[in-house]
Design goal:
By secondary structure, this protein is mainly alpha-helical. About 65% of the residues lie in helices and about 0% in strands.
């Protein structure tokens, strides 16, 4: 009887009671499975944006406005910064978003699709086209100030939303298209970061350089001491943020500075990791067989844990550490704080408002796919690059449509571009409309177009595709998709 009770209460987990364990799995299991979906962060972001829009246009819209204007103070002693909650979300928490974006950019430049000129040529061309065409469309519709200052808004791509939409199409989309989309979105992020730092700075005050330099020096000291990215990097990140804030450069760039100072090489080579892991496991087995106590088993386990930590680069470890916080807390909070456009108060008859709305939405929905397709076609035609195996021009068209989803970064730039609430709300509404239209266009293209069948090499993983030069330099019959006509145009003509 006792043994049966033990089996019920301890199904492999000491202290666990089987009915309670089953209840926990029933309640939390669906949530855990959802959070592991690639599209999960995009779905959460969409839900937050919808909630903001509904709340801001409900009878309780006053509470929405009051919440984001709640004053909060950050300071030490007599030095203090007092701003509202909206400021701390957009200017401070979004620094962590830029940190993750910077880590992704550095990883791609070091070991991903952008690490080799031959592999990088196509996503660079697509991204440049996807940034230039929307900016030109916007500027053509808004040639005069102050509406003209929003030209950077439709240049951005929201990785979480875009990848989420592509994932919904399942196996219709070859992995190489997702790799291209990620590479294009990362280059877009880099372009947006440069635009923010150069064109949307609020002047320059050299007094903040001393604080900025101190923060950078402290971070480099932590790096030299072997401190891994994580909680330990928050302090130098905050100091750098304060220095940039004082200089007038947008303080979220602090995240990019920290990211680019993070090593992309692991401290421990993988061959050495295998040796250390085998030695640690052998020592653990030896002590276990000798009947040693648990305290004596901790030493080989610590060695194994440390070896596992050192076998992964600090950049990847930092990206993995911060990504859930960004995807499921910071970005949804940003959406909740910024997507609440009061539709009843929006006056499109106001000078510049309609132009901003059309420029933003038209730049994202039309400019992105046209720019991505146009410059990609030109690069292929000039012999600068070739489409990967299994990817035709229909796949590039799908990529361009998905790249038109510019939600997070587009709204972020809009907040910097406009001080006039009417123009800002028009820009935000344009982003929201463009996000919906671009997502629908991408899904429609993915379902309606007959994408080329996957060749056997398509079974490679996305990380393998990123590193495989032959995949991006295909020739012969396997390269037929790279000259597939689109809109009646054949790049071989």
């Amino acid at each position: 009887m006792a043994s049966g009770t033990t089996r019920e209460r301890n199904p492999g987990r000491p202290g666990a009671w089987l009915p309670a364990q089953r209840l926990r799995e029933a309640l939390l299991g669906p949530l855990e499975r959802f959070l592991h979906l690639q599209a999960a962060s995009g779905i959460v972001l969409l839900a937050a944006a919808a909630a903001a829009l509904v709340w801001a246009n409900s009878p309780w819209w006053h509470s929405y406005e009051r919440l984001w204007h709640t004053p909060l103070t950050l300071g030490v002693g007599s030095w203090q910064i007092q701003r509202d909650l909206h400021f701390w979300i957009n200017e401070f928490l979004m620094t962590i978003f830029f940190l993750v974006a910077g880590l992704e950019i550095k990883r791609e430049l070091a070991a991903g699709a952008l690490s080799d000129l031959k592999r990088a040529a196509l996503p660079v061309a697509a991204a440049l086209g996807g940034m230039l065409a929307p900016a030109l469309i916007y500027t053509a519709l808004n040639p005069a100030a102050p509406a003209r200052s929003g030209w950077g808004i439709p240049m951005a791509t929201d990785i979480a939303f875009a990848v989420g939409v592509v994932v919904l199409l399942g196996r219709r989309v070859p992995p190489a298209v997702r790799v291209l989309l990620l590479a294009v979105a990362i280059i877009d992020d880099l372009g947006a970061i440069l635009v923010i730092a150069i064109f949307y700075a609020s002047g320059f005050d050299p007094q903040g350089l001393l604080v900025l330099g101190g923060g950078v020096a402290f971070m480099l000291l932590l790096r030299a001491a072997g401190v891994r990215p994580g909680i330990g990097y928050i302090f130098p990140l905050t100091v750098i943020w304060v220095g940039l804030y004082q200089t007038g450069v947008h303080p979220t760039i602090a995240g990019v500075i920290v990211a680019f100072a993070t090593p992309v090489e692991p401290w421990l080579e993988r061959r050495h990791f295998i040796e250390l892991a085998q030695q640690a496991l052998a020592e653990f087995q030896r002590r276990f067989e000798q009947g040693r106590g648990e305290h004596e088993l901790l030493e080989p386990l610590r060695t194994l844990t440390q070896a596992g930590r050192e076998a992964v680069s600090p950049a990847v470890r930092g990206e993995v550490f911060f990504h859930p916080w960004v995807a499921f807390l910071i970005m949804p909070l940003f959406a909740l704080a910024n997507a609440g456009v009061r539709l009843g108060e929006l006056d499109l008859g106001r000078p510049g408002a309609l132009g901003v709305l059309l420029g933003v939405s038209g730049g994202l929905v039309l400019g992105k796919p046209l720019g991505v397709l146009g410059l990609s076609w030109l690069a292929v035609r000039c012999g600068l690059c070739r489409l990967p195996r299994g990817v035709g021009w229909h796949g590039v068209a799908l990529l361009g449509a998905a790249a038109g989803i510019g939600f997070t970064m587009a709204i972020f730039i809009a907040e910097l571009a406009f001080t006039d609430p009417m123009l800002l709300n028009a820009a935000k509404l344009g982003v929201l409309l463009a996000t919906a239209l671009a997502a629908l266009l991408a899904v429609a293209l993915g379902r309606a177009l007959a994408l080329p069948p996957r060749p056997p090499a398509e079974e490679l993983t996305e990380s393998q595709i990123e590193r495989e030069n032959a995949y991006w330099e295909s020739t012969g019959e396997s390269a037929r998709p790279e000259v597939e006509p689109v809109l009646g145009i054949d790049p071989r003509d």
